[in-house]
């Protein structure tokens, strides 16, 4: 039977770093569900469809023009949007500022959850996101929920983003993390929350390796 490890949590709580490391040592496949919400957001921005106020009908109608494929890179499945590797374009602040609005649309979630289940078929996977343990894979073998204080998460994300954008402001990163958490936890369709059977880990006081050791020792039981 294939194995599923679900890692959910707040923005920049270290989910993807941990998920990648776990996938590597267990030789599972890492799948980043957030990259799918980000890729769609990028697509709508690029095609001038993200206007204020958001035109949900237009967004839903255009889902039919989006085809996702995946390429295997090491232990990860990397997303291709209409054949294009969009990874370099989906982590910037513009996408981050709009993604939670897109992720709150129920039709978007239905569309992506189907893809998340399909791409995982017949694979042992580690998937990270917001609703993996609650909605996408409620029967996952292990479920984790990572959290950390706002300022610690913003500091970690700021250090990452600064490598590619030297003008990035810490205050902007902090503001974005707080507003995304608010939108992700308060939406009516599959809001961000720990599954009842998730193990909650506060990473504020631990470094990356300490968190990893904790997770792997729980997984190996
Ligand atoms: O994991 P991330 O920060 O890259 O995700 C970007 C956004 O996508 C996040 O703010 C909310 C949304 N998302 C979601 O709603 N459900 C998921 N399973 C993954 C991400």
Mean pLDDT: 96
String of helices and strands:
EHEHHEEEHHEHEHHEH
* CATH architectural group: 3-Layer(aba) Sandwich
Binned strand content: 15-25%
Low-confidence stretches: none
User: Strand count, sense and closure of the main sheet?
Assistant: 8 strands, mixed
Helix share bin: 40-55%
**What ligands are attached or bound here?**
2'-deoxycytidine-5'-monophosphate
Rg (C-alpha, Å): 17 Å
Could you give the distance between the termini? 18 Å
Estimated structural class: alpha/beta
Q: Figure out the total of helices.
A: 9
Determine the CATH topology: Rossmann fold
CATH superfamily: P-loop containing nucleotide triphosphate hydrolases
The number of distinct structural domains comes to 1
Overall, the morphology is globular
| Tally of strands | 8
What is the CATH class? Alpha Beta
Mind sketching the topology for me?
Layout: E1 4-9, H1 15-26, E2 29-32, H2 33-46, H3 56-62, E3 68-73, E4 76-81, E5 84-85, H4 93-103, H5 106-120, E6 125-129, H6 132-136, E7 142-147, H7 150-162, H8 170-186, E8 199-202, H9 208-220
Parallel strand pairs: 1-6, 1-7, 2-4, 2-6, 7-8
Antiparallel strand pairs: 3-4, 4-5
Helix pairs in contact: 1-9, 2-4, 4-8, 7-8
């Amino acid at each position: 039977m294939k194995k599923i490890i679900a890692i959910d949590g707040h923005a920049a709580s270290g989910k993807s770093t941990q998920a990648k490391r776990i996938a590597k040592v267990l030789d599972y496949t890492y799948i980043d569900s957030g990259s799918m919400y980000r890729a769609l957001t990028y697509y709508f921005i690029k095609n001038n469809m993200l206007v204020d106020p958001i035109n949900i009908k237009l967004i839903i109608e255009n889902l039919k023009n989006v085809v996702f494929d995946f390429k295997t890179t090491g232990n990860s499945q990397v997303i291709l949007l209409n054949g294009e590797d969009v990874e370099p374009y989906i982590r910037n602040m513009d996408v981050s500022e709009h993604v939670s609005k897109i992720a709150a649309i129920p039709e978007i979630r239905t569309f992506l959850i189907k893809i998340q289940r399909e791409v995982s078929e017949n694979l042992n996977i580690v998937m990270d996101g917001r609703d993996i343990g609650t909605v996408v894979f409620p029967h996952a073998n292990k479920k984790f929920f990572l959290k950390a204080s706002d300022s610690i998460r913003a500091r970690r994300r700021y250090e990452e983003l600064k490598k590619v954008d030297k003008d990035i402001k810490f205050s902007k990163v902090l503001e974005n993390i707080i507003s995304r958490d608010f939108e992700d936890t308060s939406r009516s369709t599959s809001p961000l929350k720990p599954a009842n059977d998730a193990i909650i880990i506060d990473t504020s006081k631990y470094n990356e390796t300490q968190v990893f050791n904790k997770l792997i020792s729980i997984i190996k039981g």
